[in-house]
Amino acid sequence: MLSLQGVSKWYQRDRPAVRDVTLRVRPGEIFGFLGPNGAGKTTTIKMIAGLLRPDSGTITVNGRDVVRDPIGAKAQIGYVPDTAVLYDRLTGLEHLELVADVRRIRREARTERVRELAALLAEPALLILDEPMVGLDPKSNHRLKQLMRAYCEAGRTVFFSTHILDVAERLCDRVGIIKSGRLIAVGTLDELRSAGRDDATLESIFLELTEEPAPEAAER
After folding, report:
1. Fewest 10 Å CB contacts: which of 48, 106, 152, 181?
2. Residue 157 in this model has a pLDDT that exceeds 70
3. What angle do CA 35, 41, 43 make, to 5 degrees?
4. Measured in whole angstroms, how far is the alpha carbon of residue 63 from the centre of its chain?
């Protein structure tokens, strides 16, 4: 469904934001993308969504290369950024109608879908969510998790970033952890536990993998 091969992005010559990321996300999978602030999560997500061009490597979505076939790739994607992007002069319904027009959804099919979420309107193969649970009340949070699971049970894929590690632990089929632009771990919770305690939580694994060395240790 989603493939990244050797993907890198540089904003400054001596400070790559994303370094040589290789990753495959399967159909029907909820994949959690985790990392500290500034680790490269949003940059990676924007490259997958076609909003940033990778400096090296390839990204394909459902077989479509996001650089060589940007329109075809974006047609496979529903993307919810970490901050809402809306047109000031459009009502909520008008915004959804615009999305439906851009996606070429038939008039008879869009009425029911408009009642759901804008990113789900076209029923894309890959749903990308950047910190989707920020600001949600418990009921909305629960409903979103139900939607994500139902979406994957229909054979589609969800790729989302979050800082809420207990949610990721309960919800995700697999997770990837990125630190300083590098993908340092990928797998199920059991696979990530294999190098440590059998009862380790995702939070404890994450903290251990992303902990920065103490200054005195770094100097040795």
Report:
1. 106
2. yes
3. 155
4. 18
CA angle, 103 as apex, 97 and 109 as ends, to 5°? Answer: 65
Residue 185 near residue 176, CB atoms below 8 Å: yes
Q: What is the pLDDT of residue 81?
A: 83
Q: Which listed CATH number (3.40.50.10140, 3.40.190.10, 3.40.50.300, 2.40.30.110) goes with 2-84+125-219?
A: 3.40.50.300
pLDDT, mean of residues 195-208: 84
**CA-derived radius of gyration, the chain:** 18
Domain boundaries, the chain: 2-84+125-219
pTM of the entire structure? 0.81
- Edge-first strand listing for the sheet containing 15-25: 15-25, 2-12, 56-61, 64-65
Q: What is the mean pLDDT of the chain?
A: 86
